[in-house]
Specification:
oxidoreductase; Aldehyde dehydrogenase family protein; binds nicotinamide-adenine-dinucleotide; Ald_DH/histidinol_DH; alpha/beta; about 40% helix
Amino acid sequence: MIYPKPEFKERYENFIGGEWTKPVDSQYFNNPSPVDGNVFCQVPRSNYKDVNLAVEAASQAVSIWSKTSATERCLLLNKIADRIETNLELLAVAETWENGKPIRESLHGDLPAVVDHFRYFGSVIRAESGEVADIDAQTVSMEVHEPLGVVGQIIPWNFPVLLAAWKLAPALAAGNCVVLKPAEQTPSTILMVMELIADLLPPGVVNVVNGFGSEAGKPLASHPKIKKVSFTGETTTGRLIMQYAAENIVPVTLELGGKAPNIFHRSVMDADDEFLDKAVEGFVSFAVNQGEVCTSPSRALIHESIYDDFMARCLERVAAIKMGDPLDLSTMSGAQVSSEQFEKIMRYMDIGREEGAEVLIGGDAFENPHYPNGYYVKPTVFKGHNKQRVFQEEIFGPTVSVTTFKDDAEGLQIANDTLYGLSAGVWTRDIHQMQTFARGIEAGRIWCNCYHVYPTHASFGGYKNSGFGRETHRMMLNSYRHTKNILTSY
Ligand code: NAD
């Protein structure tokens, strides 16, 4: 089935204080689709003046929203979830058009997860009960939570709606008001979501300001009235965000880059066919979302004793990845998000070859007969060693760099030989080995005998240069609120 091209407005505005608001300086930028390379809408090129308006609107709203009951917040989050669910197909098609990801992922992966996120945090806040402790016969200690106030949220382009939901749902559940800045590459689908839910939101509770990082993101992250900055994006930008937030002594959550190892042990080849097929799928998941995933298993570590057999199966499976029209449900790999991202990935193809990595498959652009001007790259497998740049740097494209290891000690050493620590995959039938690797790898999410599974009630976040703070899971509510202790003597 091929979905028809979505319809967008020619021009979108910012959403501030419950109103669609033109940028103060009347500047807009063009938003091209990576699917065909053509501009399909214009979006405000906001600056500090627009950010100030949005923060002001949120500051006014916070005095009311922060006093709402858990039941009211739960109700709103559920209504938002219902509205998005009703319009799932519309939004999935829009997201595919603006981001390039295949419709099978936006329709069956991203958007359902968005809905689940709002429902989950609605349930969690409603079900929460406080902590009360008897200190002695006359004294009771109570832990109570209070919202932080106005929070600034800045997101990248690889999951334009899901990452917004990851941030919005818990912040609202905890009683905060939000100013959100989407990525300049993918502003439209989240604006469509705002159009769908605008009538549900009390004015000022959620505000969306569009624009570029230095012009709209920086004034948001450094605004003196912002009480927290939650950022997802590149590690280099994360460093700047910390500096801006330091000026105001406000907390930050940083979800940054990754270079995940995916480790295949000897027992993978001894297992039954079902397990082996699953492991091959795990390897191939480097191409999910065209590799534009922070957790992408972009380094594969394969035990030397199974390398030839296992690799042969993996390469056969990579060759079967169907490229084509991203709006076709049978397409498995779509377009890279932008011409810049396409060029960056192609540069890494050259870098890999120049530093001696062998290209086992791919290594080139894909000429898409449907869209000759879109940004398509063939899934690519490099063979080399962990010191090469294609093993160390985040390419953020459909590439995996493969190497071998001789024993557990060497496997662990290579896995941890990276600046990043977001995620890892471990494939083995040996439970002891699984634990050794799961505990030994310095990363926030370890997938054992699976990959790219993101339940809302499992925590997610990084070690090392992949950032700090957690998203998803109810534990992260506390990063959106103060904990106050009230100690009472009777
Ligand atoms: P990016 O850092 O270039 O941009 C992310 C956002 O930050 C955008 O909205 C951008 O406009 C804004 N920004 C840029 N410079 C800024 C500045 N000086 N001040 C304030 N805001 C600024 O990242 P990207 O290229 O959009 O996204 C890809 C990166 O995101 C990859 O490194 C990927 O690993 C990471 N990522 C991490 C996670 C995670 O959960 N750890 C999830 C998705 C993506």
